[in-house]
Amino acid sequence: MGDAVSVSTETLTGAAELRRFLHGLPGVDQVGAEERAARLATRSIKTSAKAYAIDLAISMVDLTTLEGADTPGKVRALCAKAAHPDPADASVPKVAAICVYSDLVAEAVRALEGTGVGVASVATAFPSGRAPLEAKLADTRRAVADGASEIDMVIDRGAFLSGDFQKVFEEIAAIKAECGEVHLKVILETGELVTYDNVRRASWLAMLAGADFIKTSTGKVSPAATLPVTLVMLEAVRDFRARTGRQVGVKPAGGIRTTKDAIKYLVLVNETAGPDWLSPEWFRLGASSVLNDLLMQRRKLTTGVYAGPDYFTLD
User: Fold this and answer.
1) Is residue 24 part of a domain?
2) DSSP of 173-226
3) Residue positions annotated with a catalytic role
4) Residue 216 in contact with residue 229, Cβ under 8 Å?
C-alpha cells in the first residue's frame, strides 16, 4: 500500500497531514479496475447457490422512499413490505432497513416495532449536502431522537472537490458524534467525484472520520452505483481494516434493478473484500426497485412458476 497509508490515524491532526495522507494513497488503475469488475460480472451462479444469493440479497436491501410526495401512509405500506416482502411466503427474509426522510422516522419506527427491520434516515441536507453544519446536526438530532437506527449523511462534495478535506472530515466527525451509538452511513456521491482516485480518497476520508458505512450515491445523481466504483470502495474498506482493525460496511445505491445485478455485487464483495462482508451488517443494496425482481426470481426457483410483477406491491 505504500508508506503514506501506513501512517497512524492518530497523526492526522491537521489539514496538511490529512491532505498528505489522502494524496499519498496509491492511485487506482482505471483500466484494471474496470476489467476486473467486468470479469467478475460474468460469473454464473446456479441452482442452490442462486437461491442462497437471492435470499441474501433480499436481506441486504434498504427499502427506500425519498420523494417530496411521501406520506405516512406510503411509509406504513413500505414498512409492511419490508417486514414481509412476500405475504404469501413466510420463508422470505425481511429486508435490512427502511430509509426515509427525518420527519417520517417516527412513523416508520412505530410501524416496524418488533420486526427487527432497521430505520435509516437521510440527513444533513440530503441530497445536496449544502447547508450550515448547525442545520445538519439538527436534522441528525431529530432523526436519532425519533428512533432512527442509522443515519445516511451526504458529504459536501464542493468542499471535497476544492481540496478542503479538513472541512469534510470535521463535518463527518461532528455528525458521528451526534449519532452516538446509531450507525452512520456516509454518502460519497461518487457520480460527482469524477475519478476513481477521488473515490478512494473520499472512502478513506469518511472512514478516518468515523463512518460505519460508506455509500456510493444518493440515487439522485447519474451515474449512481457502478461495479468499478464499488470495487474501489470495497478495496478501501478491506485495506482500512488491515491497517486499523476496524471493519466498515459498503452500500452501493442507485441503478441496481435486477436479480442479475444484485448477484454481480455479491460476487464482487466476496472476491474483493471477502466473505466477512457478506451480511446485512456489512453490505447493503440501496435498490428498492430490485426487490420485486428478487421476489419474482425466488418464486420461480421455489415453485417453477414465474410470477409477474402484478403479484407484488409496487414500491
Assistant:
1) no
2) HHHHHHHTTSEEEEE--GGGT-SHHHHHHHHHHHHHTT-SEEE---SSSSS---
3) 152, 215, 251
4) yes
Whole-structure pTM value = 0.92
Amino acid sitting at position 15? A
Domain holding 196: CATH number? 3.20.20.70
Q: Which helix (H) or strand (E) holds 63?
A: strand 62-64
Question: What's the one-letter identity of residue 40?
Answer: L
274-306 confidence digits (pLDDT tens):
999 999 999 999 988 899 999 999 999 887 776
Handedness of CA 245, 287, 141, 201 (dihedral sign): positive
- Residue 104 · residue 71 · CB < 8 Å: no
For residue 221, CA distances in Å to 162, 167, 305 come to: 19, 23, 37
Instruction: Give 5's pLDDT tier (boundaries 50, 70, 90).
Output: very low
How close are the terminal C-alpha atoms of the chain, in Å? Answer: 43
- Model confidence pLDDT, tens digit, residues 200-227: 999 999 999 999 999 999 989 888 899 9
Distance, in Å, from the CA atom of 156 to the CA atom of 167, rounded to the nearest integer, reads 8
Q: Is residue 217 part of a domain?
A: yes
152 three-class SS: strand
Contacts of 83 (CB under 8 A, 6+ apart): 94, 112, 115, 117
**Domain range spanning residue 131?**
30-303
In a domain, 308, yes or no: no
Domain count, the chain: 1
Residue 259 lies in a domain: yes
Angle at 58 between CA 125 and CA 193, to 5 degrees: 35
At residue 12, the pLDDT reads 66
Number of H helices and number of E strands within the chain?
A: 12, 7
| CA dist., res. 278 & res. 29, Å (int) | 25
